[in-house]
Amino acid sequence: MRVRLEDVAREAGVSPKTVSRVLNDEANVKDDTRQRVLAAMEAMDYHPHPSARSLAGNRSFVVAMLYDNNDNPTSSYLAEIQDGVLEACDEYHYSMMVRPLRMGGSDFIQRIDTLISRHHPDGVVLTPPITDYAPLLKRLGERGVPYASVSPVKRRGCIGVTMDERQAARAMVEHLIGLGHRRIAHVLGIANHGASRWRLAGYRDALAAAGLPEDPELVVQGGFTFGSGVAAARQLLSLGKRKRPTAVFAANDDMAAGVMWVAGEYGLKMPRDLSVCGFDDTPLASQLWPALTTVRQPSREMGRLAALQVLDSLRGRGPGRLVEVPYSLELRDSTAAAP
Question: Is the CB of residue 270 less than 8 Å from the CB of residue 334?
Fold first, then answer.
């Protein structure tokens, strides 16, 4: 026979309401009581029925992760964020749903309303660039749905997770300068991403600190995709031997891979003729040849921490906060001394 919540309560010597509080990880349960209930659940192989749990707690026990399927083409980054959100949800017995949105679409508000009305998510995790999309934030506020943001541009009063991408980009360009490079190009990401602005600012900070002028010809628009990295590299390497860069800092790993592909097309040896570095440290970075020097952004951990902030607010563990995670430089074989 199926083990019921009441059976667990009787075994643990507590009320069914206390078992429910333990299941929902509420704060107002003594540690010894919590451990007794958890031990009874394990001994009896008890698994709560999701719909019954939702009815009892007047919650859906669902966290939604929202992303822009038009302006977020880097699937590996999203996959790592998603894995982190799922890890946090699993830890606290929540389900996760993933939904794409399109910023600026004529049906945007309607899709948000449908999502909330149909699935009743208890909370939401937002990924760039919709972390700062005002119509979305306004609607979530109007509907009373708490949210946490990954890498928000506007950080005041925000909960979620962030990283100092500007300082990380500066550190990477300073690494190139330390290797003797003076003509350092930068391949930009999508214009409306906070990441693009931060990484460009860090690039400029490093040049200014070293007394190096910024050459507009060496700053080329990309789009966070391999193809945009290819197009940018062809533009840069067509400048000719005297004007082309000796190093390229791409705003993400996918574009750096595109730069490396074109360098091979031009017959350049890396890193002897051209140093290339990226940002994010996706699995691709260590799969390339030569392995890509890049900034490690702990995307999975960022997804987990963002989800934990919204879960903490749902579980009465405080209002949540904006957590900053550290970056690191992964120095591999794609960068070397300037030729």
Answer: yes
**203-216 pLDDT, tens per residue?**
999 999 999 999 99
Between the two ends of the chain, the Cα-to-Cα distance in Å is 75
For residue 76, give both structure tokens.
């590996």
Closest CA to 177 of 213, 218, 219, 212: 212
Tally of domains in the chain: 3
**What is d(CA 232, CA 226) in angstroms, rounded to the nearest whole number?**
10
Tell me the two tokens of residue 41: 């659940």
Q: Which amino acid, one-letter code, is at 140?
A: L
Q: State how far the alpha carbon of 86 is from the alpha carbons of 21, 70, 148, 165, in Å.
A: 22, 23, 14, 24
Spatial strand order in the sheet of 322-325 = 95-101, 62-68, 123-126, 147-150, 160-163, 322-325
Does 338 map to a domain? Answer: no
What CA–CA distance (Å, rounded) separates 267 from 290? 15
Question: Would the pTM count as exceeding 0.90?
Answer: no
pLDDT tens digits along 44-89: 888 766 554 544 456 778 999 998 866 555 678 888 999 999 999 9
**Residue 335 domain-assigned (yes or no):** no
Are 6 and 18 in contact by the 8 Å Cβ rule? The answer is: no
